[in-house]
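FAQ: What does a ligand-bound record look like?

Like this one, built around magnesium ion:
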Amino acid sequence: MRKILIVDDQKGVRRLLEELFKKDNWEVEVAIDGREAVEKVDEFLPDIILMDMKMPNMNGLEASRMILDRHGELDIIMMTAYGEMDVVKEALDVGVKRCITKPFDIINLRDTVNQMAKEKVS
Ligand SMILES: [Mg+2]
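The answer part, i.e. the structure of the complex:
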């Protein structure tokens, strides 16, 4: 089964995305901040990570850097706020595959994730 790790400090966002991807036959794990994401990656070994940018303890950029250091092949999609172009550039430099702006259209997001997963397999 395809595995996705959802990282967001907002419970509502975690719940929404967890439900969305479970319905779409993904095995889902969630983390409440960057620190927990880094902890969970080694054991869960997701195919894709959906990573919020702004989080307490460790933000999405720091977490992505640490994760990609050890798992360079991992696909990370970063969720940023509108207008954070500097953050987007930094994220892509770190190796994040794609950035999407919050608030996002969930159907769009789901399609993006599925497309990335497909490209990875082929
Ligand atoms: Mg946040």
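Follow-up question: can I read anything off the structure? Yes, for example: The chain has a mean pLDDT of 95.
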